[in-house]
Amino acid sequence: MTVLVDGYISVINGRATLPQDCAKAVLERYRKTGLDFVKELRGSYTISICDDHRDTAYFITDRRRSRPMFSRQIEPGDICFSPEVRELLWVDDKPCPGLWAEAVVEFLILGASCDDHTLFSGITSFPQAAVMACSRSGLDEQRYWRIAFHEGREAGGEKELIEECHVLIKQAARRTLSAVHRPFLFLSGGVDSRILLGTLLEQDEPLPVVIYGTEDGDDFSIASTLAQRCNLDATKFSIPLKGLQDHFEAATLDADCRAETIDSPMASKLHRILGSEFGAFLNGDECFGWHSRGIENPAQLQPVDAIHAIGLRSLHEVGRLSDWLRPAARAHAGRFIDRTIADLVSRAGDVSPADLMDTMYYEQRMGNMLNAFTAQRLRYMDQARPFLDEDVVDFMGRIPVRYRYDKRLLRKLLDVCYPDLMEVPLATKDSIPVAKTYRRLFSQDAAMRGYVWSCLVEGLDDRLCELIDPERFKPFVKALLDGERLPGVRIPLWARIPGMHRFHKTTNEVSPVSLVLRIMQLNIYLASIRQVA
Q1: 323-348 residue pLDDT tens
Q2: How high is the mean pLDDT of the chain?
Q3: How far is CA 180 from CA 192, 375, 385, in A?
Q4: Residue 73 to residue 56: CA distance in whole angstroms
Q5: CB of 300 closer than 8 Å to CB of 353
Q6: Residues facing residue 138 across a β-bridge
């Protein structure tokens, strides 16, 4: 019997586990309880158990799928596994699988994938909290846990909720610190990292602090002020906006093109630098509780708000992309995405839109987008996100929804437990490049314009040209780079009939600059695959 553990397990059977003892502890629990032991685990891991007696290999993912794993069935009884999609593209003498056109369009809309989708046909990702059993009969999936919310279930008064949340976050931080080596805290100006900062100071754990950003936002300066007030030496990285194109390829390949990373390409360079000094990063990340988006009462939310909150849109809501797609691709992708949305909503069952929103966050946005973004750091150091500790997540699932919404419980926790940290205002604007930043760079940076032009006008991949009509797409790119008026979106002939425009519902809910960046990221990725071939 062989046991391999990628990552760390902080708790097995209620006991803390040293990193060097994880595989041994897993083997002991498996021999004693079978696969039932997986419900006991806490941490960030992928486990493989090769049981010769059962002639079966088991792959086990943690409850948030924090570490990627993919499979490709080459032929019946022949399955390959890898933590990277591109490692599965070329297996022995088998041909590279083709692009999954509908999933590519989904990526362009969302900036990531949904469910187990990847960019390539026949390659799928492992789900959260899963035991994948691989035997001669094939691959069998069993889920040992799913996130659940219990709307309206009071877990106590507000004071008790704050106290319990505080205790669980401190426990999560202790678990994390015991399981990783040489960690540091990514400090921003928001709620989550501020609570982690207070927790670490309260436990007398003065971790090194790292702050990074551009001059376009306020979180860089606010995080610096927080570190100064706490007498912490902070390592600061100012993200330059000149020469970003030099880092586009590294950002694309580090993340295996599983999420949009080209919009903040300097992160790859930052991770390489930090990885030479540190072994792990603590990150508040995004936690439960969406910003109110102008809706103060969660009862006013609709199911569509949950879908929009994770960034997914129907194709008719992304008119600019729809305009670029070839007719057949537009029709197939539109139906595919509508089915995906319907499946996501129906699978969540009869829950409130606010609970659906957090379900979508955990299973889709965090499970696919945020994990894919943070996975690029795994090349250089480990990741640790105490807010996504299993017991913290279970607690969030049983508190009244009004406390999750807009992070109200966490904001109250800050006010009560760390009032001194709240003397510094919360950040309101991220210090990372965004769509309008690139719009400005296109007009100011000739090198950037030249790079985009060569990539998307002169060198658009043939496989993308099968989806995207160059006659519609390339004039838009040219106008964008030249600072000219952007071409209009095509209006269907039937909508031009007097009075019929009222029924034409196409909108532009995704920035066209973001769409251009995502197409460029895909183009870079496909070029790298072609070079390998």
Answers
A1: 999 999 999 999 999 999 999 888 88
A2: 89
A3: 20, 16, 11
A4: 16
A5: no
A6: 135
